[in-house]
Amino acid sequence: MTGMMNGRTPFANLAKRFYKTVSVSGEEGDGWRILLDGRAVKTPLRATLALPTEALAQNVAREWEAQGDKIVPKSMPLTKLANTALDAVRGREAEVAADILSFAGRDLVCYRAEAPEELVARQNAAWQPVLQWVETHQLGSKLIVTTGIMPVDQPVEALAAMKWVFSHFDAFALSALHVMTTLTSSAVLTLALAHKQLSVDECWAAAHVDEDFQIAKWGADAEASARREARRAEMFAAAEFLRLRSATSEMK
């Protein structure tokens, strides 16, 4: 699924705004459509952009309404995620969930530093409570925590439980979860965020304990900071998409 989240928004090649009005039409159970001058928006693969909740549809509509004379796809992250859900994830939910699960096998929070003491303490404070919550309330099984970078194989029963948990999210939720897991390198942190055990700020900070420690010690690089800010914006958009989907434990 590498590159799955790099889909284009509808009409991405059209620089000029071609519509005057934006509205939302639909009802529960049938999906909520975005209408441009009364015509339904289509995804790049020509599916109707029908969204599962009115809240999500209204926020996607606001992205279209906020466009000026020119359409700027980068300013429409919710639309991009909706396109991804419909064109790249729907019908492939098991494959996307498996890709998320691959991070659990080498999850960030399971690989701890041996030194220095300050970094070890920061990692334990940020990661151990989250890991214990996921093990207790989601997996019913423990994940192996190790030091260093040498990979360890996680218990089969823990990975099977994680697979079961992610199988309960639909295409819209999985689109956001895949983005967040890729950005954090942690299915554990993503799952805690999905179940509101972490805020998006807390999740982001937990995913960057090592990097923030290095920055505090050696300072920040301007280019690296710019890349991080772009990833942060993507993370927060995905978290907002998931919140609007109300997908904490949504069934397909």
What keywords describe this structure?
54% helix; 10 helices; alpha+beta; 4-stranded antiparallel beta sheet; 252 residues
Please tell me about this protein's structure.
A hairpin with a 3-residue loop joins strand 1 (about 20-25) and strand 2 (about 30-35). The protein contains ten helices and six strands. Strands 1, 2, 3 and 4 form a four-stranded antiparallel beta sheet that branches. The chain has a two-stranded parallel ribbon with strand order 5-6. It has helices at about 55-65, 75-90, 95-105, 115-140, 155-165, 170-185, 185-195, 200-205, 210-220, 220-245, and strands at about 20-25, 30-35, 40, 50, 110, 145. By secondary structure, it is an alpha+beta fold.
Per DSSP E runs of 2 or more residues, the count of β-strands stands at: 6
Helical/strand content category:
alpha+beta
For the record, give the distance between the C-alpha atoms at the N and C termini, rounded to a whole number.
20 Å
The mean pLDDT is 91
Structure annotation, total helices: 10
User: What is the H/E order?
Assistant: EEEEHHHEHEHHHHHH
Gyration radius (Cα, Å) is 20 Å
Q: Spans of 5+ residues with little confidence (pLDDT < 50)?
A: 5-12, 247-252
What fraction of the residues are assigned to beta strands by DSSP? 5-15%
Specify the overall morphology.
globular
In helices, the fraction of residues equals 40-55%
Main sheet record = 4 strands, antiparallel
